[in-house]
């Protein structure tokens, strides 16, 4: 199965004074991609909490920054989930810059890797925040 892909554009609010994406904002892009990955499976986080009484929390992450994104860049965030156990899962995520929007037609469709991340999440009870089994809805 191929990784889920979610497009995003870099806006002023994502950048520092130099027009470069502020390093912590990449975490927001990764989070939004995981949310959209769930939505693509017909699961809204609010509904998950209301009907199943669970939510997800980040246990840890590792992130490698390869190159900087800038204002107006078209990005693609990928998301690939692998269950780790009964309550945890690992998301392998990447952020790519879509090339070819400029004047060079030879670069159309070429992607440049900007960020690689591994995000470990745990499924928890919404009220107690204690670990709960990840349901079959994520398999």
The CATH architecture classification is Roll
Give the terminus-to-terminus CA distance.
12 Å
Please list the strands of the largest sheet in the order they lie side by side: 1-3-4-5-2
Helix content: 10-25%
Overall residue-averaged pLDDT value: 91
Per DSSP, the total helix count is 2
**Biggest sheet descriptor:** 5 strands, antiparallel
| CATH homologous superfamily grouping | Hotdog Thioesterase
**What is the CATH domain class?**
Alpha Beta
Strand content: 35-45%
The run of helices and strands is: EHHEEEE
Describe this structure in words.
- It is built from two helices and five strands; from the N terminus they run βααββββ.
- It has 139 residues and is of the alpha+beta class.
- It is elongated.
- The longest helix has 16 residues, at 25-40.
- It has helices at residues 25-40, 45-52; strands at residues 4-9, 54-65, 74-83, 88-98, 111-125.
- It has one domain (4-138): Hotdog Thioesterase (Thiol Ester Dehydrase, Chain A, Roll).
- The model has no long low-confidence stretch (mean pLDDT 91).
- A five-stranded antiparallel β-sheet has the order 1-3-4-5-2.
- Helices cover 17% and strands 39% of the residues.
In short:
The chain is α+β, with helices and mostly antiparallel strands. The protein has helices at 25-40, 45-52; strands at 4-9, 54-65, 74-83, 88-98, 111-125.
Record the SSE blueprint.
Elements: E1 4-9, H1 25-40, H2 45-52, E2 54-65, E3 74-83, E4 88-98, E5 111-125
Antiparallel strand pairs: 1-3, 2-5, 3-4, 4-5
